[in-house]
Amino acid sequence: MSYVVHGWINVDHMPQERSVSHRIDCARALSLNGQRDETFTELRTAERTSPQLVRNDPRVRETLRDLIKQSPVTGGSRSSEVFVMAQRCRAVQ
Hints:
By secondary structure, the chain is mainly alpha-helical. Helices cover about 60% and strands about 5% of the residues. It has 5 helices and 2 strands. The protein has helices at about 15-30, 35-50, 50-55, 60-70, 80-90, and strands at about 1-5, 5-10. The chain is globular.
């Protein structure tokens, strides 16, 4: 399910590409709102649904870069889950 302002939207019934796109857009919005954990949860769920769509989407790369910037000093370490996902998506090297 994806976050919305006052509840949830069930995207599980949508076609795969559409539900993943919705999750990516939702993650971007959550990131812009400073909701780091929820952002990463949406991105991970989208990646589990369709790794190829997520790893090739420029919106995901931008969102992951923002998450890394928002992270505490240790959050950008090479062992963090965000950094590992960012490497998979070619958001960082």
